Amino acid sequence: QVQLVESGGGLVQAGGSLRLSCAASGRTFSRYAMGWFRQAPGKEREFVTACNWSGGNIYYGDSVKGRFTLSRDTAKNTVYLQMNSLKPEDTAVYYCAAGLGPINSRNYYLATKYNYWGQGTQVTVSS
Fold first, then answer.
1. Relative to the CA of 24, which of 43, 50, 54, 75 has its CA 20 to 30 Å away?
2. CA distances from 107 to 33, 38, 63, 104, 114 (A)
3. Mind listing the pLDDT tens digit for each residue in 50-106?
């Protein structure tokens, strides 16, 4: 079993920054994919960013490219989402996710590729 615990959400003004953390435990993650999704009220869950735990490409959703950065600390089994130049439309609950197999350019954005989900952390960007 895998446990994912997010932290770092909060309220920030437009143009500001936040860093989310996702601490993973319960398994060896060398073959996993890790990612972030978000869901705003009344909207479907949206892909934000993801990578394979072993390294390689980092994928970003079009709406966050150039503003958000995914990183990981393998020693701490933690992934981070640095969010800069935040906009009101970034307001959502942000979910950390882990997939049992590697992702690639054809499937990184599919929620079905991710088997474990955190409880979510609220990010609110005021205008």
1. 43
2. 11, 17, 18, 6, 10
3. 999 888 899 999 999 999 999 999 889 899 999 999 999 999 999 999 998 889 999
Q: What are the two backbone dihedrals, phi and then psi, of residue 63, each rounded to the nearest 5 degrees?
A: -75, -15
11, 75 Cβ separation under 8 angstroms: no
Q: Which residue has the tokens 């996710």?
A: 97
| 112 CB-near residues (< 8 Å, 6+ apart) | none
| Closest C-alpha among 33, 41, 7, 12 to residue 118 | 7
Distance CA 79, CA 121 (A): 14
Query: What local confidence, expressed as pLDDT, does residue 1 receive?
Result: 79
Tokens of 9: 């959400």
